[in-house]
Amino acid sequence: MLNRFALTAAAAASALTFATTALAGDQYVDETGFAVSGYDVVAYFALPQNPVGQTQTPPVAGNAGITADYNGATFAFATEANRDLFLADPAKYAPQYDGHCAYGVAQGGKVPANPYLWRIVDDRLYLNITDVVVGFWEEDIPGNITKSESNWVSIEDTAASDRTIPKFTSTAPQS
Is 143 exposed, middle or buried (0-12, 13-18, 19+ CB in 10 A)? Predict the structure, then answer.
């Protein structure tokens, strides 16, 4: 398995796009023991994405027996093929801001993110914390990403959030 240094080097070598720096701090991990509460981050990219203002398609639960480590956390996958895609380019699939709420980062802090509240923008996965926060984030997605990128530089090295995701129970595997 590739080590964190090798994966970081591979991420740095990939195209410099908005948010590749969004993977430098500690990954948010909740009570499941997995990044993104045990949901398959590769599977998000194959799900139909609903328009702004509509609830997204539910994420795909990962399998506790099909995992990969990246950014100090264990990610679970529904299939070995998804795990292999992730290992080939983890920065492409891992959620931005180390799995913290994108709008929270835009506001200058690290708070947990709910894996059901997601959106793919410019081939990057963004998560948010609550339905209400999704509404604020969707009012100006490009502007909020710009704010998040600006804020991330000063908060990425702070500890990952240790808070529980409000009103959320994962149906994905537990470690």
Answer: exposed
